[in-house]
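Budget justification aside, the reviewers requested a transparent look at the raw inputs and outputs of the sequence design task funded under Objective 1. We therefore reproduce one unedited record. The lines immediately below are the structure tokens for a 424-residue chain.
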């Protein structure tokens, strides 16, 4: 909580300006030539210059869980639980469809969505029908399953360990790739009686996938195709000044986290402070909303125009969703070391073992998943199908989830690419 408060103070100090805004002559440099690279144009009719937002009433469903939120919007939801090989009990959410969009398909393709760090399955449905990728896929006739990584709001149980003690939190995203994803994928395939599924990951949800398919390559055969939104593997060109500063002192991070967050090793989930902060200061009618936006923008990149600021109270009600400090430390080491390897200078991940078809989607103004790092990743993936750059130059890391026009700028393209793996 104190760590978040420090970022909050930074947001106050710079609420009227951008901290170290990227120079578009330096940061947004030309993209390297790549036969698999695609850069579309802004879809006609989109107004990407209007920074105004309409006030969004939020109290009616602010505190709903993901399954309740899905049902609130008229969709059917299911809750499933799976136990990993090392004993963590994970919760998976399923969108079974909407009566208004009954698909004529006899065969419902199965798609599995995996969230980023400090979030949960909420990220796929928070913006509602017509915008959230989970809803869009359900409307298109997909059988949508949304995972929750160990330690987040929905996956805080274990066969023998308690989240109140440090032993529960001795994991990072390596264990998510080695145990969480395999267990979840096997469960979904068993429930749906399929041999393969389509995988979509955002940020850390791509990192854990690269861990799984490089370290347990047999899982490549269970994936029709993988769609990576804001992929994160190499991080040496990450632009966020906050994250770069922390990475410079990554050898102090664990003691610092223990000092400020407690010795359990947990990055605490959203609590009353965040909910009050969101409901009072971050809604569209508040004069303090720029403070809230700077809290995000200092990390993910500045986009005053396209980011849907009306979602801020909802976001802070669900995020942070909980994590282990070792996840954050591991990412800090990737930034400082420059390669993709296990924590504390462990072995490198062999990306040449990833044989599944992969589509990468990235943007120029993403301060976490930089163009240079994605180019390096794409050069090391043996079965890369396409690397797609979002056409809007200011599209940042969280715009992949909560941009006003994320459907037109990104999801329409993702779903078009996905459709080639659907039959019947």
């Amino acid at each position: 909580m104190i760590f978040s408060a420090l970022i909050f103070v930074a947001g106050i100090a710079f609420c009227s300006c951008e901290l170290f805004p990227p120079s578009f002559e330096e940061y947004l440099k030309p993209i390297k030539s790549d036969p698999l690279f695609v850069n579309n144009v802004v879809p006609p009719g989109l107004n990407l210059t209007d920074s105004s937002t309409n006030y969004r009433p939020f109290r009616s469903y602010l505190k709903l869980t993901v399954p309740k939120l899905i049902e609130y919007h008229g969709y059917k939801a299911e809750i499933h639980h799976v136990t990993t090989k090392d004993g963590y009990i994970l919760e998976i959410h399923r969108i079974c469809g909407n009566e208004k969009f009954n698909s004529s398909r006899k065969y419902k393709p199965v798609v599995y969505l995996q969230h980023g760090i400090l979030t949960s399955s909420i990220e796929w449905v928070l913006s509602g029908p017509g915008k959230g990728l989970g809803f869009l896929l359900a409307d298109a006739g997909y059988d949508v399953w949304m995972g929750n990584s160990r330690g987040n709001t929905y996956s805080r149980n274990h066969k023998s360990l308690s989240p109140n003690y440090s032993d529960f939190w001795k994991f990072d995203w390596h264990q998510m790739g080695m145990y969480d994803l395999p267990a979840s994928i096997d469960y979904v395939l068993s429930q749906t009686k399929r041999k393969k599924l389509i995988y979509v990951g955002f940020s850390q949800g791509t990192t854990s996938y690269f861990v799984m398919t490089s370290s347990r390559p047999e899982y490549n055969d269970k994936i029709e195709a993988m769609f990576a939104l804001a992929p994160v593997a190499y991080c040496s060109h990450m632009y966020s000044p906050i994250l770069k500063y922390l990475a410079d002192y990554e050898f102090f991070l664990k003691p610092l986290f223990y000092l400020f967050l407690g010795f359990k090793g947990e990055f605490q989930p959203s609590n009353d402070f965040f909910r009050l902060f969101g409901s009072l200061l971050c809604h569209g009618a508040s004069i303090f909303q720029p403070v809230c936006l700077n809290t995000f923008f200092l990390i993910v990149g500045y986009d005053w125009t396209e980011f849907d600021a009306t979602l801020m109270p909802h976001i802070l009600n669900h995020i942070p969703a909980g994590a282990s400090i070792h996840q954050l430390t591991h990412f800090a080491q990737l930034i400082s070391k420059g390669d993709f390897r296990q924590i504390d200078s462990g072995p490198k991940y062999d990306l040449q073992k990833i044989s599944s078809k992969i589509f990468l989607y990235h943007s120029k103004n993403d301060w976490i998943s930089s163009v240079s790092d994605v180019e390096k990743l794409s050069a090391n993936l043996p079965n890369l199908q396409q690397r797609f750059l979002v056409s809007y130059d200011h599209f940042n890391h969280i715009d992949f989830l909560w941009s006003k026009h994320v459907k037109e700028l990104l999801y329409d393209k993702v779903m078009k690419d996905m459709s080639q793996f659907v039959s019947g």
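DSSP finds 14 helices and twelve strands in the chain. Residues 173-192 form the longest helix (20 residues). Computational costs for records of this kind are itemized in the attached budget.
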